[in-house]
Write a structure and sequence with these properties.
single chain, 3 domains, six-stranded antiparallel beta sheet, four-stranded mixed beta sheet, 9% strand
């Protein structure tokens, strides 16, 4: 599968490739992770599609365009405010993400996935978090990389006889590597408050943010010394951890250490704080750094006699059959298995016609046919081996055999289904043009990040600014920087119905209670609503409150009639400021908005 061209490279080129090159198998795993993240994100967002992305919801298109949207941002989601149109775009994005998952026309679908993601993010910036910025950037740099060179439809149907290189070194691999490092170096640089550097209380303050804290996070608040240790450990990993990628000796070992360290770091964040998909996005980003030596070692361990001597014969006159066996070999991770024409061996060909089936010959020379052959090949697959008992279960085996026979009798119809899948040559190489583009964009990103820590020193040329914004490479890694949020709290929205009944609109009409919830983070249905409500509390976002008020009226009154309709309400934020050394905080009731559903003059307080 891979060419052995290392010996023709100088030691400097080999080391440069080792430090900044990326293994094609790691890129494939990265692609699969990105696609699964996009699908998961779309499913989670679709639960609030009407509220977050239509004119019925919290931010209709007109005020977004007139007041809030950066003129350099763009979004096809703004073409219509109807739920049906948004649903179509969500389904399209999901279909494209599935194509990315299986690696079909990989570069094209990566570009389309990025464009649809940027469009979605621009539609409602109030529900975005750091994880959204990161996945957007990862997908951008992925457009320049050969994500479909392994474990994909593209690689399965590769018609080129030329073996692929094991790794690729290009401007894009350098850019992606540094982009991931920038996340940690610049968030470290922005953490300038003494609670990080002097008294080490930052993790204490972070876990005290009730809108984030999980039960596990609350549990760890009982260990003050551990929290100080975790504060300094976090700073150390953010600053020094990325440098593990660039150690010139035992590079593979140290890169694996970096991958494991950062994956564990983000999983730890996710256990203590409700951060949505952010921990998973960050963990998947580090998969690109899995070194070639890891994959080669895994491949050697998987080379059992059973796998090495497996042979698969197919009908050379059936295009559907040929494509199927090539796809199976790829996705079952059996790369060395020979795929042979049954017509070339009279005995095999005769048995193929007798059984009307492909022929799988195992390491002992036994032949397997129809669905039993599928079950046997899955048994040898390192991925699907656990499914073997299910596939060999008599009811499944019987149903599978019948399905196989139906398909075998209708090969022409099956061939039409697989007609879009074409055998094409696959090349993995970088071009001078794309390298130059990647390095120029990396320069833009570097300047943009430097400006976030010293805006008076690093002035951006206009061309850098607008290019960065148009491509949505804008970023600021100020997670818990310069210090974790200290003003915390929960929402109470007492409302009055037309008949005088008082309800809490925020809690779907339950009686009003000013008591602090046992777990504040659980009062939000999901990460998007939590982010939106935390943003709404900020004075910088006070102009959004009018549209949230109007949404609450629309949402309630379309579901209730007559005297049960919502008349007026006020939005209160029960502000609780975290104090040092576990001091008991005081709670202040702050009204941030007053609204009348049938009066056109709401009051902003």
């Amino acid at each position: 599968m891979f060419s052995k061209e290392k010996k023709f490279k100088s030691s400097f080129e080999r080391k440069l490739e080792e430090l900044f090159g990326l293994d094609l198998r790691s890129l494939a795993l990265f692609r699969i992770g990105l696609a699964l993240l996009i699908v998961t994100d779309l499913i989670k967002r679709s639960q609030d599609l009407k509220a977050h992305y239509t004119d019925f919801g919290i931010l209709p298109r007109a005020p977004l365009i007139e007041q809030f949207l950066n003129p350099w941002f763009w979004s096809v989601h703004l073409f219509s405010g109807e739920a049906l149109f948004q649903s179509f775009l969500f389904l399209l994005a999901g279909f494209i993400a599935f194509a990315l998952l299986i690696g079909y026309r990989t570069r094209f679908v990566t570009i389309v996935s990025w464009a649809l993601l940027v469009s979605l993010h621009s539609r409602n910036p109030m529900v975005l978090s750091a994880g959204d910025i990161e996945i957007r950037l990862l997908l951008f740099w992925a457009m320049f990389l050969p994500l479909g060179a392994c474990y994909s439809v593209d690689s399965a149907l590769n018609s080129s006889s030329k073996p692929l290189s094991e790794r690729i070194l290009s401007g894009a691999t350098v850019a992606l590597t540094l982009q991931i490092c920038f996340i940690y170096w610049f968030t470290w640089a922005l953490k300038s408050d003494p609670i990080w550097w002097k008294d080490g209380s930052a993790v204490y303050y972070a876990l005290s943010i009730d809108q984030f804290a999980t039960p596990i996070g609350q549990f760890f608040l009982g260990f003050p010394a551990l929290l100080v240790f975790l504060t300094y450990t976090t700073l150390g990993i953010e600053l020094l951890g990325p440098f593990l990628l660039f150690i010139p000796i035992r590079t593979s070992f140290f890169r694996l250490c970096a991958v494991v360290t950062f994956i564990l770091l983000h999983l730890g964040f996710g256990l203590g704080l409700t951060l949505g998909l952010f921990p998973f996005i960050s963990a998947i980003a580090w998969l690109v750094f899995i070194p070639s030596e890891f994959w080669n070692g895994m491949s050697q361990r998987l080379q059992t006699p059973q796998r090495q001597k497996l042979k698969i014969y197919y009908d050379g006159e059936c295009g559907f059959c040929k494509k199927t066996v090539y796809l199976l070999r790829t996705f079952l991770v059996l790369p060395g298995t020979p795929l042979l024409l049954a017509q070339d061996e009279p005995e095999i060909f005769a048995e193929m016609k007798t059984h009307n089936s492909w022929v799988v010959v195992d390491w002992q020379g036994y032949k397997h046919f129809k669905f039993k052959a599928i079950a046997y090949v899955c048994h040898l697959s390192p991925l699907l081996r656990p499914l073997t008992p299910l596939l060999e279960w008599r009811p499944v085996l019987s149903a599978g055999t019948k399905a196989y026979e139906i398909i075998a009798k209708n090969r022409r119809a099956a061939s039409k289904v697989t007609a879009p899948l074409k055998f094409r040559p696959l090349e993995v190489r970088s071009s001078l043009l794309t390298d130059i583009i990647a390095f120029l964009l990396l320069l833009c990103v570097s300047l943009w990040n430097l400006r976030t820590i010293a805006p008076s020193i690093f002035k951006l040329p206009k061309v850098v600014s607008w290019m960065t914004l148009v491509l949505r490479l804008d970023q600021k890694w100020n997670m818990f920087a310069p210090y974790p949020l200290k003003d915390d709290g929960w929402y109470v929205i007492p409302g009055q119905l037309k008949d005088g009944t008082e309800i809490d609109v925020f809690k779907d009409g339950t009686p009003v209670s000013w008591e602090k919830p046992r777990l504040v983070s659980a009062t939000y249905s999901n990460e998007r609503w939590r982010k939106y409500m935390m943003n709404l509390w900020s004075k910088d976002n006070s102009k959004y409150r009018l549209y949230y008020g109007r949404y609450l009226c629309r949402n309630w009154n379309t579901q209730h009639q007559g005297s049960q309709q919502l008349d007026t309400f006020s939005i209160y934020f029960m502000r609780e400021t975290t104090l040092p050394n576990y001091q008991t905080p005081t709670v202040k009731k702050v009204r941030i908005w007053k609204h009348s559903c049938f009066n056109s003059s709401p009051e902003d307080n």
